[in-house]
């Protein structure tokens, strides 16, 4: 499995540690899930934006075809 090193300030690392402990999870699991959630959210937002653009430009695209 590929790995990734991410650097945090001491303050960021302490906040990550506290949040992971509060959820009863490891820091690695917490950080992994946060990154995956961010990726999913970005994909969802892109898909919604693309759908909106296609809908708004539908008539123009039809006339240009």
Automatic annotation (TrEMBL):
Keyword set includes DNA-binding: yes
Stored InterPro entries: Arc_DNA-bd_dom, Ribbon_hlx_hlx
Keywords from the UniProt entry: DNA-binding
GO terms assigned for molecular function: DNA binding
Sequence intervals crossing the membrane: none
Pfam family, one: Arc
Domain Arc-like DNA binding: 5-45
Annotated protein name in UniProt: Arc family DNA-binding protein
Organism in which the protein naturally occurs: Streptomyces lavendulocolor
Native organism taxonomy: Bacteria, Bacillati, Actinomycetota, Actinomycetes, Kitasatosporales
């Amino acid at each position: 499995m590929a790995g990734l090193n991410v650097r945090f300030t001491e303050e960021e690392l302490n906040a990550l540690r506290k949040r992971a402990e509060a959820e009863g999870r490891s820091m690695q699991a917490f950080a992994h899930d946060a990154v995956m959630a961010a990726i999913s959210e970005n994909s969802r937002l892109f898909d919604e934006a693309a759908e909106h653009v296609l809908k708004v430009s539908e008539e123009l695209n039809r006339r240009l075809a």
